[in-house]
Write a structure and sequence with these properties.
Chain A: One of its GO terms (cellular component) is plasma membrane. The complex is a heterotrimer of chains A (about 160), B (about 140) and C (about 90). Chain A is mainly alpha-helical. In chain A, about 55% of the residues lie in helices and about 10% in strands. Helices cover about 85% and strands about 0% of the residues of chain C. The chains are: A mainly alpha (about 160), B mainly alpha (about 140), C mainly alpha (about 90). Chains in contact: A-B, B-C.
């Protein structure tokens, strides 16, 4: 089982992607399954660190929160840009000490922070676990700190650690 | 516009709404890229186009092709997923490169260098690492 | 009726994306630094990808989807390579 299907979730995702691109039929399903299994053998040969999901049930909540935040920050950033003459010195860097250590969780945190307009992941120091962010609308620094630590990092820690 | 005549009106309105949201946000993002002052401000602007700009146009495309071909066509959403997964990689690499270049030029506006990953006394002092970093920069010149 | 609405929505979206491409191109040309140009190029790629999707709606041809997929993939690789070059190529002279 483990030798033949090293990453069952990835195989399912690859088959879904294949069927979305090629259209559903029995032949395409078999071809997609074969490709997905061979591709995951190739991945297993690289010996990547295997991510452990501890709490499946929290994933939909994370997606909902991120979806809502992306919509909200799209409106906010578009508003700031459209208001034109934004004051100088309102954006700035922020240093945040993180507690999250899991590489998969950090990768997802990077996707969330960069994918959301208004915050950009600039640098991460893995020895000291410190993250440098650039925030577009840095009026209230504690609010942003609160957002990253309590809204995202807490959930990611619950899911991955 | 071959099949547009037989589209129901609700589908047309939805397609038009998502198209205009997507294209409008992309335009605002590119305007911000052109208009904003510093590089680190500008790096926020294109994410408008890659988040809801792409999502809006992909959703409009999904609705259009699903109604025209009268079956569920979802492959345009894959573009949104790919863009969502690849944008952070490019933007993080780019901003790290920009930070590195600014630090080697001793630009005061960017945060100072934190200790490098594998140095034994890495966690000592930030001041130290800044000093050695400056020396290294001078030697390179 | 619905054909008219769709025609104007698609035309407006195409004009907006065209202007967005011009703005990204202007940032790419004017710089001032190399990282600004790379960011402009990345935005240009993304905008042209979206323009191809809108062309797909205009013509009803799903071939444009594949074009935009290729543009997206090329844009990703190009930006990663250029960012890597900025990190390593120029500074170690």
């Amino acid at each position: 089982m483990n030798r033949l299907f090293p990453y069952p979730l990835l195989i399912i995702l690859l088959i879904i992607t294949w069927l979305m691109l090629a259209g559903f039929s029995v032949g395409q399903f078999l071809l997609g399954t074969l490709t997905a299994i061979i591709a995951t053998w190739g991945l297993a040969a690289l010996h990547p660190a295997k991510p452990r999901l501890r709490r499946w049930d929290l994933l939909p909540r994370l997606f909902a929160i991120v979806f809502y935040d992306i919509v909200r920050s799209n409106i906010a950033v578009a508003g700031i840009i459209l208001h034109g003459g934004r004051k100088v010195g309102k954006s700035g860097f922020m240093t945040i000490p993180l507690d999250l250590r899991d590489p998969m969780g950090l990768a997802i945190l990077a996707i969330i922070i960069t994918g959301t307009p208004g915050t950009a992941w600039i640098d991460y120091n893995s020895a000291r676990n410190i993250l440098i962010l650039h925030v577009f609308d840095l009026v209230d620094e504690t609010a942003w700190l609160n957002l990253i630590k309590n809204r995202y990092e807490y959930l990611l820690q619950e899911i991955f650690e | 516009m071959n099949h547009a005549a037989d589209l129901p009106i609700w589908a047309t309105l939805l397609i038009a709404l998502f198209l205009l949201i997507g294209a409008g946000l992309t335009l605002v993002g590119s305007f911000g890229l052109y208009h904003l002052r510093s590089f680190y401000d500008r790096i926020h602007a294109p994410t408008l186009g890659t988040s809801w700009g792409t999502a809006g146009i992909a959703i409009a495309s999904v609705i259009y092709f699903s109604v025209v071909e009268s079956q569920l066509v979802l492959h345009q959403l894959l573009i949104g997923v790919f863009v969502m997964a690849t944008t952070p990689v490019t933007l993080i690499l780019l901003s790290r490169a920009a930070l590195y270049r600014d630090r080697t030029e001793n630009n005061r506006d960017v945060p100072p260098l934190h200790p490098l990953r594998n140095l034994p006394q890495a966690s000592e002092l930030e001041q130290d690492s800044m000093a050695t970093h400056k020396n290294a920069g001078e030697e390179q010149k | 009726m619905s054909a008219t609405i769709l025609f104007w929505a698609v035309t407006t979206a195409q004009i907006a994306l065209g202007i967005a491409m011009v703005l990204a191109l202007a940032r790419m040309i004017s710089g001032p630094r190399a990282q600004d140009r790379v960011l402009g190029l990345d935005t240009l790629y993304n905008n042209s990808m979206l323009l191809m999707l809108v062309f797909g709606i205009r013509t009803g041809n799903s071939l444009y989807f594949e074009i935009s997929l290729i543009i997206g993939a090329l844009g990703f690789v190009a930006t990663v390579a250029l960012a890597k070059f900025l990190m390593r190529g120029e500074v170690i002279e």
